[in-house]
Fold this sequence. Notes:
The protein is mostly helical. The chain has 1 helix and 3 strands. Strand 1 and strand 2 form a beta hairpin.
Amino acid sequence: MANNETQCSVCNEDKVTYLCEYCLHRFCLNYLNEHQQKLNEELKMIINDFAQIRENINKKQSDLLLMKQIDRWETNSEIFIRKISIQFEIKERNLDTNLNKWKQNAEIIEGNGDGNELN
């Protein structure tokens, strides 16, 4: 704040005043401290708001990371389930094939009548 002899913005008296570089008003010593306290309070509120905004952004980023992890888990689960499904389909086909072979062999055995021949 610069030193000048001019009129105070609050009391309108000609005194030694100091220019507030923030609001560009001039204040005498009686009101300078009061004005500085108000500015400090405003600054604290701004700092608190900034901290809250930063916290919200961090939480949203954290939530976004969690959502990405859930998406990856979902994709990996779908791939795993498809693989298992394909494995079961292959095993089912193999069982059907083996069952058909056993049926054919049983029919051959029944057709021969003695039950001792297998192909």
